[in-house]
């Protein structure tokens, strides 16, 4: 096959209409018709197949579609097709068999996403949906993000959620659930004080068989199948296309009513099936990037990478994000392997989201999973951050400086005794923007504004912080000391400038125990999962009893979040503000990091003591009190001059 000339296709056939997909349209006489439109400029024929069901042998009819300008094909039926299922068959060079596939623009689908479903979206709105508003969020630094997986959240019986809702969208809507004396699930989110839940992919993905809800199955969801449909296994009835839509909206509505925003993790960077994907079937070799010889490139490490620089894939991403943000009132997006998207597209997405609501959050991974044919200076890599400064990036510098490198389980960080990371850490504390007191560790000074720095030390990838601490400490430390280290890590992430990001359960020492394979000898690394993408509930689900066991840790995280929200000094949104109001205090020890946050009204001093012994610091003028001690409590007693900081802890002082 000749290599596709994408430049020529984009020039001659770029289509800017907003009507691709299946749409139910009101006619002048009040009756409804259904219009189907798809784009495939080089097809020699496109056919619409209508079905009665989402699977099975129940085809109703096949209709030829008519070619319009710009490679668009269309057919309209003078009836309301709400409830019908459909696919398209694309024919190239008059060859048989035609490529039958689901519409890439399908907004709803049958079980396992094999066929699109025509849906009257207004019929999926729960009562009161039109009145639901997004919780206010001034800028990214005001957010405290909590990364959750829908199944992990409530599948374990300790969640206290009704059995039929466990592991589903519905499991995130039930209130007054408990495990012993601890609040769980939705009530836990409120108690902790986070502002946004960030959901691991909830768009339809490939590898969980939705037709077998009784079989325990798990996947993170980075195996995308239908980008505009919801994942069926999170609904109580995957066979009914409207059920998942309605239940997801109920979830968004419940979270919004409780002041919590919803961020979607989106995986536009690759398709799960490559050659067999709906994109490839609709227009071969257009939507994916290829090498010069026409073979698929694999910048995602998952077999291929999509081509955001090809205009109709860029448009697809923009249309899709706009759809989620408006139809579902989503509050933000996290882009998986964002560096596979070109900078121009990333900025266009930011502009589009701004038009919908400037407070929508947007951040992503500033790296790829493999080599891309696209020049590195055109892609949204972290090192190009200034070219897309309004978009957040995961701060791997602060992550690794806090707990040690991710790829070596034994590597130590600031909290676990590595004294060489303080310079990188200081860069993280100021939000990774330039600061007059910092000169070295330039690689960790990359953010255009603090709003760009997504600070974290635990996410779904790699070992949990707690497991990493257990592995890397090699039994040199007591559990009490490890808890101190965990709390110190949390204080760094939550009290640094930027946007703090936590993983569900991190606040009660989440662990991911592995089921050993037969013949495997247990050692300190293999008993924990560092890549639990398809691991069973045993590994992934939240065991809410841990919240009872580690109540002191939870209370500390909660106290940190409350402290962060108490003053704007912890969430400054510009580098000028940080430069003006944040000053490191010199105490003769570069590793005993102390900084002052001060404006006309308030003054805080934050001290990080990574040592196993206590340390003393000299407070600035005035009478202070301990706003946050090593356990997260307030100590009202006034103090001044030289004050004590407990071993392996953060202490925050506030001027009276
Ligand atoms: Ca699915």
Strand percentage lies at 15-25%
Radius of gyration: 26 Å
Can you summarize the main beta sheet?
A: 8 strands, parallel, barrel
* End-to-end C-alpha gap: 75 Å
By CATH, the architecture of the largest domain is named: Alpha-Beta Barrel
Q: Looking at the structure, what is the overall shape? A: globular
Small molecules bound: calcium ion
| Order of strands across the main sheet | 10-13-16-17-18-19-20-21
Number of domains: 3
The number of helical elements comes to 15
Q: How confident overall, as mean pLDDT?
A: 97
Secondary-structure-derived class: alpha/beta
Helix content: 10-25%
> What is the CATH superfamily classification of the largest domain?
Glycosidases
Keywords:
656 residues, Immunoglobulin-like, eight-stranded parallel β-barrel, six-stranded antiparallel sheet, 29 strands, binds calcium ion
């Amino acid at each position: 096959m000749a290599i596709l000339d994408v430049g020529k296709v984009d020039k001659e056939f770029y289509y800017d209409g907003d009507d691709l997909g299946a749409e139910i349209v009101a006619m002048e006489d009040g009756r409804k018709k259904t219009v189907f439109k798809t784009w495939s400029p080089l097809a020699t024929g496109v056919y619409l197949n209508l079905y009665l069901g989402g699977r099975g042998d129940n085809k109703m009819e096949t209709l030829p579609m008519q070619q319009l300008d710009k490679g668009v094909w269309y057919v309209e039926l003078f009836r309301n097709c709400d409830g019908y299922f459909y696919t398209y068959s694309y024919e190239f060079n008059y060859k048989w068999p035609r490529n039958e596939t689901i519409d890439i623009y399908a907004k709803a689908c049958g079980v396992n996403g094999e066929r699109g479903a025509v849906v009257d979206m207004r019929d999926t709105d729960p009562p009161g949906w039109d009145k639901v508003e997004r919780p206010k969020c001034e800028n990214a630094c005001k957010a405290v993000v909590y990364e959750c997986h829908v199944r992990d959240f409530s599948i374990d019986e300790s969640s206290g959620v009704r059995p039929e809702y466990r592991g589903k969208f519905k499991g995130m809507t039930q209130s007054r659930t408990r495990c012993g004396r601890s609040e769980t699930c939705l009530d836990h989110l409120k108690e902790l004080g986070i502002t946004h839940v960030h959901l691991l992919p909830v768009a339809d993905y490939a590898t969980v068989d939705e037709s077998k809800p009784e079989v325990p199955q798990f996947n993170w969801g980075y195996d995308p199948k239908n980008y505009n449909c919801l994942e069926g296994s999170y609904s109580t009835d995957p066979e009914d296309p409207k059920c998942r839509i309605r239940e997801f909206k109920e979830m968004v509505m419940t979270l919004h009513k409780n002041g919590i925003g919803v961020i979607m993790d989106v995986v536009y960077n690759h398709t799960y099936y490559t050659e067999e994907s709906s994109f490839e079937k609709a227009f071969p070799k257009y939507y994916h990037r290829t090498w010069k010889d026409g073979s698929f490139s694999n910048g995602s490490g998952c077999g291929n990478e999509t081509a955001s620089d090809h205009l109709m894939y860029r448009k697809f991403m923009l249309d899709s994000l706009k759809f989620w943000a408006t139809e579902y009132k989503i509050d933000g997006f996290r882009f998986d392997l964002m560096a596979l998207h070109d900078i121009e597209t990333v900025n266009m997405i930011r502009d589009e989201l701004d038009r919908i609501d400037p407070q929508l959050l947007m951040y992503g991974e500033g790296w790829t999973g493999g080599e891309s044919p696209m020049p590195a200076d055109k892609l949204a890599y972290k090192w190009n951050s200034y070219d897309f400064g309004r978009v957040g990036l995961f701060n791997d510098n602060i992550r690794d400086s806090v707990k040690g490198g991710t790829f070596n389980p034994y590597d130590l960080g600031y909290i676990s005794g590595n004294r060489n990371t303080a310079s990188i850490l200081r860069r993280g504390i100021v939000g990774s923007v330039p600061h007059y007191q910092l000169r070295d560790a330039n690689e960790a000074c990359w953010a255009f504004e603090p709003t760009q720095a997504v600070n974290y030390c635990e996410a779904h990838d790699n070992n949990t912080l707690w497991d990493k601490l257990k592995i890397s400490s090699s039994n040199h430390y007591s559990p009490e000391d490890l808890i101190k280290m965990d709390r110190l890590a949390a204080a760094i992430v939550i009290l640094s400038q930027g946007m703090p990001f936590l993983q569900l359960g991190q606040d009660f020492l989440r662990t991911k125990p592995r089921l050993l394979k037969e013949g495997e000898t247990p050692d300190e690394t293999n008993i924990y999962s560092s890549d639990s993408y398809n691991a069973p509930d045993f590994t992934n689900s939240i065991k809410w009893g841990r919240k009872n066991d580690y109540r002191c840790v939870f209370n500390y995280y909660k106290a940190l979040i409350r402290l962060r929200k108490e003053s704007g000094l912890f969430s400054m949104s510009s580098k000028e503000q940080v430069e003006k109001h944040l000053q490191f205090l010199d105490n003769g020890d570069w590793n005993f990091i102390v900084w002052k946050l001060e404006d006309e009204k308030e003054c805080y001093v934050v001290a990080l003591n990574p040592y196993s012994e206590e340390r003393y610091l000299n407070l600035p003028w005035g009478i202070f009190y301990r706003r946050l001690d090593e356990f997260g409590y307030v100590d009202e007693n006034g103090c001044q001059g030289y004050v004590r900081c407990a071993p392996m802890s953060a202490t925050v002082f506030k001027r009276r």
